[in-house]
Amino acid sequence: MVKYIHHMTDLTVVLDRVLLLSTLVQADLARFERDEGLTTSRVHLLWVLGQAGPSTQQALAVALDVTPRNVTGLVDGLVTSGHVTREPHPADRRATLVTPTEKGRRAIADLVRSHEDLAQRLFDEVPRERLAVFAEVLEETAARFARLMEEAR
Amino acid sequence: MVKYIHHMTDLTVVLDRVLLLSTLVQADLARFERDEGLTTSRVHLLWVLGQAGPSTQQALAVALDVTPRNVTGLVDGLVTSGHVTREPHPADRRATLVTPTEKGRRAIADLVRSHEDLAQRLFDEVPRERLAVFAEVLEETAARFARLMEEAR
DNA sequence: TATTGTTATACTCTATAACTATA
DNA sequence: TATAGTTATAGAGTATAACAATA
User: Fold this and answer.
1) Which nucleotide is nearest to A62 (CA to C1')?
2) Domain range spanning residue A49?
């Protein structure tokens, strides 16, 4: 029984370390946000825009997993700050294409660069063999967990 | 140069996987919150209370890294939902001791159990040698990063 | 009829500043 | 004078529901 308890404790420590690292990464993102005068939600929207290109608000709502109403508010803020514009959709007059401005594209590029810098600072010193194990365990764990969440639903 | 780019890309993929796993863990926490009728911030406060025992709002503000005013609001909500009470501080009549109720203690216990369950679901199937490498890389990375953040400040 | 986005309304988290009670 | 907590005020993120324009 004592062995079982120790076992649980060890696994919990591993989870705690994952959460700690995730907290540190979020703190780094918060610094980026302060520097750019953006919020987490707006940066997330810009990030999606950087991946997907100009998108309808409907598509953004799905990608961000928030309501369309919420996207209206986020886009309003990003229009005010000059990061995006609402362009007419060429084929559907109901929809708008949220499109990064020059300033928005610069912010997205900075975000990508900052993300890469962080990856380098975090992992560049880790011996490659250990990093490979680390990456594999991450991938397997995430996949297993996604499967479990799916089954539970 | 191509090699350098590949190198960057690999490290970025590792970071992406950390972020993905962290997203999944947060989704699991969100499920817990919905079940208990709590929010992330209030769960965080309860968690701290579970670790530290009855605390002044001042101490909670420091632990949560938010303003005292914010703690007032969070505690108001948790008093309304019946998870905590404000007890007089025995030695300082300015201060209150935020104290979990029976319901609050049950929620904290559920939270701890849910955390342990998650750790088990995530990591129990990982071979112990690989898990050890994983945990070590996590710890070293977090420590190195914390040091870098400290220097940058 | 269904979809896209907005107006209306409400709740939560967060912050700063001014204030009261107590130390 | 300093500290603990609250009132006042404000901005941002989030949600549901009702509605207009368009498909």
Assistant:
1) C4
2) 2-152
Q: Is the pLDDT of residue B26 over 90?
A: yes
pLDDT confidence of residue A149: 81
B115 touches strand D (CB under 7 A): no
Distance CA A135, CA B11 (A): 9
Instruction: For residue A12, give both structure tokens.
Output: 């919990």
Going by C-beta distance under 8 Å and a sequence separation of 6 or more, which residues neighbour residue A105?
Answer: none
**Which of B6, B16, B138 best probes binding to A when mutated, by most A CB atoms within 10 angstroms?**
B138
- A47 contacts in B (CB within 8 Å)? none
Q: Do A122 and B135 touch (CB under 8 A)?
A: no
Residue count of chain A, please give it. 153
User: Cβ B12–A139 below 8 Å, yes or no?
Assistant: no
Angstrom distance (rounded) from CA A35 to CA A28: 11
Do B120 and A144 lie within an 8 Å CB cutoff?
no
Q: Which of residues 94-113 of A touch strand C (CB under 7 A)?
A: 94-96
Confidence of residue B107 (pLDDT cuts 50, 70, 90): very high
Instruction: Answer whether residue B4 shows pLDDT above 90.
Output: no
Checking if the pLDDT of A148 tops 80, the result is yes
pLDDT, one tens digit per residue, over A25-71 is: 999 999 999 999 999 999 999 999 999 999 999 999 999 999 999 99
Which residues touch A17 (CB under 8 Å, ≥6 apart)? B135, B138, B139, B142
Nucleotide with minimal C1' distance from the CA of B93 is: C22
Domain count of chain B? 1
pLDDT of amino acid B150: 80
- Give mean pLDDT, residues A134-144: 96
Q: What is the DSSP string of B112-138?
A: HHHHHHHHHHHHTTS-HHHHHHHHHHH
Q: Which domain CATH number covers B135?
A: 1.10.10.10
